[in-house]
C-alpha cells in the first residue's frame, strides 16, 4: 500500500541562487523593467500609466482647481489630496475590503505628503490638486510605482515642480539586501522599505518601513535604495522628454 509521510519539513524556498541571481533572474541591485505611457486618460489634466515589472499602475491628476471645501483651503498654497486604490477582482479580496480601505487611505496620505516638498504649491493659493492612483495589478513595490506614476502624471498636468520624485522598494531576503521587490520577495517575512528621493539633491521625501529593522541593516539598505532610486530617474526623465518632443511636433512650426 502507498503511504505518505506528512512529517517531513517543507524545503525552504531560496530567493537568491549561489550565483547571486534572484528567482526572476535579476541581480540583487537590479531594478525591474519600467514601461511608461503618458497622457493616457481623457478628461484628466494629467495622466500616466506605468508598469514596473508586473506591477501596473494608472495615475491621474486634476487641478489645480478651486478647493471644494473652503474651510480646508490654505491662503498661501494649494492642498494636495491623493486617493490610492487597489483593483479588486476576486470575492476574497472584496471580503477584506474594510482593512484594505484603511491601508489605502494611509498610502494616499503618504503619497500626498511625499509631494508636499516637491510641488510649488505656493503658486496656487486657495486651490487643491487631486491625485488618483489605481493599482491595476500588484506584484510588489506598489507604493513606489504609484509615486513614480504620480510624478509623471503631475508633470503631464503642467503643475510646477522643483524636480522629479523617484521611488523604489527594498528589503532583506536570504540575509542579503535587494531592491525593487516583487510580491514573492515582499512576502519573505522581512521588513520592506519604500523610499522616494529628489534625484537632483538626494533629499529623502518618503521613507516607510513595514516593520522594525536593525540600524546597521537600515543604513546599508538605505544606501542601496538611494542608488536604485537614482537609476529610476533617467527612465522617467526620458519619457517626459519624449512627451515634450511629441507635443512640440504636434503643434508644428509657428508662423
List keywords for this structure.
32% helix, four-stranded antiparallel beta sheet, alpha+beta, 255 residues, five-stranded mixed beta sheet, 5 helices
Low-confidence stretches: 1-11, 90-95
Structural class: alpha+beta
Fraction of residues in helix = 25-40%
How would you characterize the largest beta sheet? 5 strands, mixed
Shape: globular
Strand content: 25-35%
- Determine the mean pLDDT: 87
Rg from alpha-carbon coordinates: 20 Å
Kindly, what is the distance between the CA atoms of the first and last residues, rounded to a whole number of angstroms? 90 Å
Helix tally? Answer: 5
Order of helices and strands: EEEEHHEHEEHEEH
Walk across the major sheet and give the strand order: 1-2-3-5-4
Number of strands: 9
Word description of this protein:
The protein has 255 residues and is α+β, with helices and mostly antiparallel strands. Helices cover 32% and strands 27% of the residues. The chain is built from 5 helices and 9 strands, in the order ββββααβαββαββα. The protein has helices at residues 91-95, 97-116, 142-156, 183-186, 215-251, and strands at residues 34-38, 46-52, 55-66, 79-86, 127-137, 166-173, 176-179, 192-198, 203-209. The strands form 2 sheets. The chain has a 5-stranded mixed β-sheet with strand order 1-2-3-5-4. The protein has a 4-stranded antiparallel β-sheet with strand order 7-6-8-9, with helices on both faces. Helix 3 runs parallel beside helix 5. The relative contact order is 0.16. Residues 1-11 and 90-95 have low confidence and may be disordered.
Amino acid at each position: 500500500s502507498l503511504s505518505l509521510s506528512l512529517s517531513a519539513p517543507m524545503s525552504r524556498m531560496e530567493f537568491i541562487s549561489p550565483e547571486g541571481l534572484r528567482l526572476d533572474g535579476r541581480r540583487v541591485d537590479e531594478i525591474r523593467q519600467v514601461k511608461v505611457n503618458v497622457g493616457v486618460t481623457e478628461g484628466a489634466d494629467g495622466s500616466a500609466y506605468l508598469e514596473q515589472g508586473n506591477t501596473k499602475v494608472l495615475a491621474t491628476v486634476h487641478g489645480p482647481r478651486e478647493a471644494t471645501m473652503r474651510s480646508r483651503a490654505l491662503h498661501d498654497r494649494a492642498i494636495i489630496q491623493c486617493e490610492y486604490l487597489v483593483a479588486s477582482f476576486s470575492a476574497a479580496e472584496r471580503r477584506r475590503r474594510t482593512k484594505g480601505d484603511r491601508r489605502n487611505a494611509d498610502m494616499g496620505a503618504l503619497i500626498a505628503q511625499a509631494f508636499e516638498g516637491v510641488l510649488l504649491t505656493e503658486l496656487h493659493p486657495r486651490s487643491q490638486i487631486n491625485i488618483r492612483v489605481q493599482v491595476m495589478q500588484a506584484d510588489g513595490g506598489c507604493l513606489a510605482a504609484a509615486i513614480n506614476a504620480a510624478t509623471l502624471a503631475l508633470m503631464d498636468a503642467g503643475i510646477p515642480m522643483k524636480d522629479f520624485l523617484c521611488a523604489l522598494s527594498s528589503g532583506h531576503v536570504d540575509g542579503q539586501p535587494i531592491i525593487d521587490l516583487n510580491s514573492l520577495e515582499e512576502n519573505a517575512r522581512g521588513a520592506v522599505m519604500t523610499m522616494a528621493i529628489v534625484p537632483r539633491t538626494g533629499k529623502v521625501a518618503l521613507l516607510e518601513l513595514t516593520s522594525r529593522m536593525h540600524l546597521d541593516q537600515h543604513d546599508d539598505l538605505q544606501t542601496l535604495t538611494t542608488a536604485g532610486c537614482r537609476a529610476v530617474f533617467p527612465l522617467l526623465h526620458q519619457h517626459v522628454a519624449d512627451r515634450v518632443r511629441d507635443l512640440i511636433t504636434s503643434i508644428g512650426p509657428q508662423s
